[in-house]
Each structure stands twice: as C-alpha cells, then as structure tokens.
Amino acid sequence: MKAHGGLRLVVALLAGVLFGLGLAVAQMIDPRKVLAFLDLAGAWDVSLVFVLGGAVALSAIGFRAARAPRRPRLDDAFRLPATRGLDWQLLIGAAIFGAGWGLAGYCPGPAISSLAYGNPEALWFVPAMLAGAACRRWQLRRVPRALAATE
C-alpha cells in the first residue's frame, strides 16, 4: 500500500505522541513512581495498577478487533504475532526486562518519553538501551539465517 505511506507515518507519529503523553500523564516517566509501584514489600504505590489495567483492557479490545475478517485501512494485513507459546528466550527476555525495569525504574517507552522532559536518568538510560538493541541486531546478523528465523 504505497499510496498510504505518508499517511501511515503521520498516524504512527500521532500514535507515538499520544502514547508518550499518556505515559507522562500517568507519571510513568518518573522512575521514583515506577520503583514505588514495584516495591510490594515497602511503601507500595498502587496507582499504576490502574494504568496497566487500562493498557491491558485497551490491548484486548485492539487484538479482538484485529481478528475480524477485514483488513486495516493503512496496510495490506494485520501484523499479529505468529507464536503463541512460551519458550526459554521469551522467559529469559522477560526476566531481564523486569530486572532492568526494577533497577532503573524505566522501560523503553517511558524512557524515550522522559527525554522530552530532560530527565537526567533518561539521558544515560536511553543511549545504553539503544546500544543494547544495536548489539542484538549485530548479533542476529552474524547468526546463520536458519537460526535467526527461529526467533
């Protein structure tokens, strides 16, 4: 769908801006707020449960709508995950993600959003996150295509 290429970029930009604003309004760009949410044994801040609950509910609606037999307006087909099972790579990745989120108080979306606010922690976190992603891409290029297709 080449005709919609520019419109797709505009819609993607608007969706990203809306997502970033939502993270800012929910205070998920504040690592102290996130760490207080993750501190179940201490002074637990329950407020982010509502943010996460809203995100899960909205995602469930979106995935259900994507299963309808029609096609999206700005693409040829919906791009849904092919795999549904749990494997060791998913579990290890989730554990690393959770440990990093718990240590830094940031995950990728809020970290990028907090760059707009000049949060000093994000100025260190985002380049490190991008370096990790670049290392992973480099690693995948070195793996034979047969192994990379299993990921």
Describe the structure.
- The structure is a single chain.
- With 151 residues, the protein is an all-alpha fold.
- It is 67% helix and 0% strand.
- The longest helix is centred in the last third of the chain and has 23 residues, at 120-142.
- The two termini are 27 Å apart.
Helix content: 55-70%
Ranges where pLDDT stays below 50 over 5 or more residues in a row are none
- Please describe the biggest sheet, giving its number of strands, its sense, and whether it closes into a barrel: none
- Percent strand: under 5%
The whole-angstrom Rg is 18 Å
One letter per element, helices H and strands E, the order comes to: HHHHHHH
Strand elements, count: 0
What is the topological layout?
Elements lengths: L4 H21 L5 H8 L8 H20 L21 H17 L3 H8 L4 H23 L2 H4 L3
Helix pairs in contact: 1-5, 2-4, 5-6
